[in-house]
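As a warm-up, study this chain.
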Amino acid sequence: MQMRAVMRLTDQVRALPWLAATCRGTRPLSTSSPSPSSSTAPPPRQGKSPRFVDKVAVLVRGGSGGQGSQKHGLPGGNGGDVIVETTRAADLAAMASMPSTLTAGTGGHAISHREGTRGDDIIIPVPVGTIISAEGGYRIADLDSEGQSQIVAYGGEGGSAVTNEYYNGLKGDSCRLVLELKSIADIGLVGFPNAGKSSLLTALSNSRPKIADYPFTTISPNIGTVVFDDLMTARMADIPGLIQGASQNHGMGHAFLKHIERTAILLFVVDITGFQLSQNSPRYTAIDALTLLLDELELYQPGLANRPALLAVNKVDLPGSRELYKEFQRELREVVIPRRNLSIKTVIPMSVHDGFGVAPIKVALRKLLEDQLQETPALQANFQNALFS
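Now compare it with the structure written out below.
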């Protein structure tokens, strides 16, 4: 006889009302390790997703229980479970192409003098930092570490005298879930298009994003791993370039701002020559560009612009940049900082083209991350997972 307790979801409805609207089945959702008899979710659908995706809705179904043998008094096999499990091998692309419905294996029927075998579990691989919620918004689990798992749909009980007089197996849980990536990195690169964020990510990490001399080269976050001299590691994300009005969701602004919100510290990147989105758009000075960035962050979420941050001023190798940088420093010191409660710890001039300033940025990032480790346990856990994985 398979030893697994039966507890019906309907017994939980009074305590957790969301269950009645989102799940049907035989057992409550709970955390568990995957069964040895399990399979990974099917391969992603072919083709690239045309949209930036960091949140997916999925219908999960536990496997149905197998038919028992009334004649021999033998139970059918329990259905398999659906399990969400974190792995660093999963990424945004995997989430974007996830099948809309996932069903675990059906339990085997009792045959002759043998009870039915248990159905295969199905494992859904997701990135570390994934939130699992019921479709109605109830948060089921927050998966913050490597290898953490959550059963989201139990398989049905195999048919026996306990289930009904005909030894029919029970259906598994059926739930509509939302899987959302909560945090994509420890460090977020923030700036307007073509400021040099992708090039800086390449210089600091193992990432090789697409780089070109036109705006919007990056259309979804690129993530790289920065390895510091003491072998500590951190994830760095090149957030797609913002535009003015991002806080009102212009140019997919909310999708990108949400990821900035989910990083521990910010690394602003500003082009010392200023910013112009197109030939028909106004040209902003470097200090204006920084002010606009701060405004967009603050309009999206008050206090976001005051997150611990560094400021890298790029392209200081260009003709006339020395004078521009002096003026930038003066306006930053005399105008911007006094008017705002900024948490920008360090301002570093750089030329990512020839590598000038990259090493000081890396040192400053390590120091700032060390400060944050003392205040943010989750960030410390991410560091440890990255270091020993």
